[in-house]
């Protein structure tokens, strides 16, 4: 009897343990904790381009020219032997009169760049002429001389202008740039005045001409660069100011647009270059007009 009870108890314990094991296997395991989202990798800053690049830009500039010119005794064909003293002609040339004849031209700019440092230059040769300039004033040793009505004058301007300057980019790498620069600009300008008076003026022949050359050398400073549009379009700009050897001042500005290709860019802009001088023959001189060029990059 006791043996039978022990056997029944052992069987009951065995089945109880088996039931507990089954329940343990069926119980769900705790869900794993969700993994933290991966941290985004920081975007690296643009790597500066430390290669040396060269660009050359031939361009066509069609400027109108206006100015005031003074021819003194040393450059005029004087009649007879007038009294000692100043003799000069003041002439005003409008844009429309001088732009009428572009005789010849050669224009290009270039740049060498390594990262933020650059050296750039510009060369311009222009031979322009035009009719219908206005003689504003004719004066001799005894004062102002009356110019006969309907007298005509013509101006021819032969100019060779170049500039060179180092520059430094102060903006970080990107589609828009700003460079500061300081450099030198030189202008050699030969002006030829021809006139036809409708009556005698005493000290000058009725028909004549005068030629005078002046060299203007200026230290310049300014800013230049481009405003980025998209992967192709951009907007170049340039401004400078300067002063030089003949108490003259000069300034130049350019603004426009451009379209970039794989190895170059098409550039269209409006450009103005002005001189104000206390010199013979130039009192003031302004070139301004549209510009079209193509930049070759190497």
Helix/strand layout:
Blueprint lengths: L1 H25 L25 E10 L2 E8 L16 E6 L1 H4 L2 E14 L2 E24 L2 E2 L7 E18 L7 E20 L10 E22 L4 E12 L4 E13 L2 E13 L5 E16 L1
Antiparallel strand pairs: 1-4, 1-13, 2-3, 2-13, 3-5, 4-5, 5-6, 5-7, 7-8, 8-9, 9-10, 10-11, 11-12, 12-13
Short description:
This protein has 2 helices and 13 strands.
The whole-angstrom Rg is 40 Å
**What integer is the average pLDDT?**
82
Anisotropy-based shape: elongated
How much helix, percentage-wise, in residues?
Answer: under 10%
How many β strands by DSSP? 13
- As for the number of domains, it is 1
User: According to CATH, what is the topology?
Assistant: Lipocalin
CATH architecture, please?
Answer: Beta Barrel
Secondary-structure element string: HEEEHEEEEEEEEEE
The largest sheet is:
13 strands, antiparallel
Number of helical regions = 2
> Any low-confidence stretches, pLDDT <50, length ≥5?
1-5, 7-11, 20-27
- What structural class do helix, strand and pairing data support? mainly beta
Task: Look at the structure and name the CATH superfamily.
Answer: OMPT-like
Strand content: over 45%
CATH class: Mainly Beta
Q: What distance separates the N and C termini?
A: 111 Å
Based on the structure, what is the oligomeric state of the protein chains?
single chain
């Amino acid at each position: 009897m006791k043996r039978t009870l022990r056997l029944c108890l052992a069987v009951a314990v065995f089945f109880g343990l088996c039931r507990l094991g089954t329940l343990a296997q069926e119980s769900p395991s705790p869900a794993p904790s969700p993994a933290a989202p991966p941290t985004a990798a920081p975007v690296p800053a643009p790597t500066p381009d430390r290669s040396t690049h060269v660009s050359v830009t031939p361009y066509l500039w069609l400027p109108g020219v206006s100015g005031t010119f003074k021819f003194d005794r040393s450059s005029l064909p004087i009649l007879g032997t007038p009294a000692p003293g100043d003799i000069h002609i003041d002439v005003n040339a409008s844009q429309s009169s001088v732009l009428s004849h572009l005789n010849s031209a050669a224009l290009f700019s270039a740049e060498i760049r390594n990262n933020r440092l650059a050296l750039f230059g510009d060369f311009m040769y222009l031979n322009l002429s035009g009719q219908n300039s206005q003689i504003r004033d004719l004066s001799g040793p005894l004062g102002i001389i009356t110019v006969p009505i309907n007298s005509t004058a013509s101006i021819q301007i032969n100019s060779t202008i170049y500039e060179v300057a180092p520059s430094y980019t102060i903006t970080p790498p990107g589609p828009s740039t700003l460079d500061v620069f300081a450099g030198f600009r030189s202008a050699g300008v030969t002006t030829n005045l021809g006139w036809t008076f409708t009556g005698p003026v005493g000290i000058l022949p009725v028909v004549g001409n005068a030629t005078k050359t002046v060299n203007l050398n200026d230290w310049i400073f300014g800013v230049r660069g481009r405003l980025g549009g998209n992967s192709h379009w951009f907007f170049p700009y340039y401004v400078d100011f300067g002063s030089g050897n003949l108490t003259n001042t000069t300034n130049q500005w350019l603004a426009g647009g451009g379209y970039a290709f794989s190895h170059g860019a098409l550039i269209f802009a409006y450009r103005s270059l002005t001189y104000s001088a206390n010199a013979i023959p130039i009192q003031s001189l302004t070139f301004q007009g549209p510009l079209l060029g193509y930049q070759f990059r190497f």
